[in-house]
Amino acid sequence: MNIQVESLTHIFANSKPQRTALAEINFEVKSGQFVALIGPSGCGKSTLLRLAGDLLQPTRGRIALDGREPAEMRAAHEIAWMAQSPALLPWLDARQNVALAQRFMPTNRHPRLTVDQVLERVGLSDAAGAFPFTLSGGMQQRLALARLLALEASLWLMDEPFAALDEISRERLTTELLDLWQPLHPTVLWVTHNIYEALRLADRILVFSPSPGRIAADLTIDLPRPRSEADPRFQQTLAALRAALGSTVTAQVAQ
Predict the structure, then answer these.
(1) How far, in Å, CA of 118 to CA of 245, rounded?
(2) What would the pLDDT profile of 191-216 be if each residue is shown by its tens digit?
(3) Is the pTM of this model over 0.85?
């Protein structure tokens, strides 16, 4: 799914004082790109995801998804969401949580994978009959990832989905996410505060300025996967990303 963002501004008019979350954002994303959004807290990254997912309406400007409004793509179930909280239904077991997601797919779309195949891909075959409260935090996020896969959407909106996990679980799920994403190649907007995570995952990183959020840098990550921190090119790209983030902090202090 292609994304085109034109002169996008969002103001939370009902907050006191009124707050501008995003100011004159412009960028395009090609279909199948994995794009990380990084920047200081409160710079509008999550707001951008909500606008793309039709959970908020922009104050000014436009987001087009394959030339259509987000509301159309949401109605067509072409958008999938994953956040820090797995938001699982506690009265349904793992298999039922995934099956429920597939029930909302359009009637003219036939799932390519069964529920059990999806659970197998995320390593939860042995927990198919388990209820969410019996699963660890990492397993709950695996189940949320399984639900996302089951939707077979063209756009994945992912708002720090691994931020609350321990480092070992986070590293493992980051690797597994790439293994799941690469054969499918949906377009991904991934919000993170972790610069290493952004460099391991993304084709491209958009660096946001402090509030009101603007795009301060647009970095293409031209490194082969899997990526190693021992690779000198990784370290060079890391230095460029840190410099871009540092310039946003400097600009904030200057204001």
Answers:
(1) 37
(2) 999 999 999 999 999 999 999 999 99
(3) yes
